[in-house]
Amino acid sequence: MTNHDVQAVVIGGGVVGLASAAAIAARGRSVVVIERHPRPGMETSSHNSGVIHAGLYYPEGSLKAQLCVEGAERLYAFCAAHRVPHDRCGKLVAGVDDTEQPELERLRALGTASGVRGLDIVGRAFIRRREPHVEAKTALWSPNSGRVNAHALVTALLRDGERAGMILLRGTRLVEGAPASGGYRLRLERETLTCGIVVNAAGLEADIVSEMLGGEPFTIYPCRGEYAELRPNRRELVNGLVYPVPDPSGHGLGVHLTKTTDGDVLLGPTIRYQESKRDYEESREPLEAFLEPTRRLLPHVTLTDLRLGGSGIRAKLHPPEARFADFMIRFDTQQPALIHAAGIDSPGLTACLAIGERIARLVGP
């Protein structure tokens, strides 16, 4: 066997990279994570709604469907074991009129086919008991949906990986890499590493990393999502998770209401494809853009009840004219020592532990 400095290198210290590295290390392999930021999880992993999805929205048999259902159960167990703030609060997908009933039925059938348990169509009385201020005629109730503190999850994944022997190189960029000795030789900013296998979990930069390593070409499309919030004195209007019927364009789940584990109420995200992978702020949506989507679920909200929130950028594998692309979790077609975990948009946070296990199995025992 060829000797390397380390058996595996994971590029990217988001939740998927950390979960993958921890799973690899747990199998007794030496693993290093390269993260260009000073702290892990500073991009997509912490710029999201913090929702634990049950698996309602994804085509049956897709990786997104399989890994969401598996990942949710893994994530609940992990959070309980590592004292990460979370709860299985359930979610309402609200139908405001009769025209949305068929879509709710379709979602129930789709989720059930993927193994989601407990989905039920409920009426106004059930909705009012859980969300007294939400106006909806009917809803799909998903009892296994929940929420998690994403920042605390990143910290717990890091600690779990380090306990297993994972090493994190913070503030470190990949400069170049080339196949060598049955693996890779990677030149970093301050050092050079040789390894047996590389896991590309670089998020928004995954296509660039693949190119740098001589891998197959693909494109990551940055897609920005923006949030507003309810002001603190109006947070009592929402108790948990309330979603609209999904956007018919297929690009997003619509502006939804998320009461976080910290008690904030997020309104969003919006969805907009853009050129930049790093622009979170330019040409932000005005606060007024959030009012009508919010009022569709909370009719008594006014503009003065809202304030601008944060934003995040999704790493999508399909362009705006397409409706769906699955996760890319597999070996590269050109480089046998390169594994991709790319295009990990929603439900990536939910699925991170399941993705990590799949990556570890690809790396080998």
SSE layout and pairings?
Blueprint (H helix, E strand, L loop, with lengths): L5 E6 L3 H12 L4 E4 L16 E2 L10 H20 L3 E2 L3 E5 L5 H13 L6 E4 H7 L7 E5 L3 E3 L1 H14 L3 E3 L4 E7 L2 E6 L3 E9 L5 H7 L8 E10 L10 E4 L11 E4 L5 E4 L3 E2 L17 H5 L10 E11 L11 E4 L6 E5 L5 H16 L2
Parallel strand pairs: 1-2, 1-12, 2-9, 5-14, 12-20
Antiparallel strand pairs: 3-8, 4-8, 5-7, 6-7, 10-11, 11-12, 13-16, 13-17, 13-18, 14-15, 15-16, 19-20
- Distance, first to last CA: 15 Å
Sheet with the most strands, sense and barrel status: 9 strands, mixed
- How much beta, percentage-wise? 25-35%
Number of domains: 2
CATH topology-level fold name of the largest domain: FAD/NAD(P)-binding domain
Q: Spans with pLDDT under 50 lasting ≥5 residues?
A: none
**What is the succession of H and E elements?**
EHEEHEEHEHEEHEEEEHEEEEEHEEEH
Secondary structural class: alpha+beta
Shape: elongated
CATH class of the largest domain: Alpha Beta
What is the strand tally? 20
Give the rounded overall mean pLDDT: 96
CATH architecture of the largest domain: 3-Layer(bba) Sandwich
Give the helix tally. Answer: 8
CATH superfamily grouping of the largest domain:
FAD/NAD(P)-binding domain
Q: What is the CA-atom radius of gyration, in angstroms? A: 21 Å
Helix content class: 25-40%
Provide an overview of this structure.
The protein is 26% helix and 27% strand. The protein is of the alpha+beta class. It has two domains: 6-46 and 151-218 and 324-363, FAD/NAD(P)-binding domain (3-Layer(bba) Sandwich), CATH 3.50.50.60; 91-143 and 221-316, D-Amino Acid Oxidase, Chain A, domain 2 (2-Layer Sandwich). The strands form three sheets. Strands 5, 6, 7, 13, 14, 15, 16, 17 and 18 form a nine-stranded mixed sheet that branches. Strands 1, 2, 9, 10, 11, 12, 19 and 20 form an eight-stranded mixed sheet that branches. Strand 11 and strand 12 (192-200) form a beta hairpin. The mean pLDDT is 96.
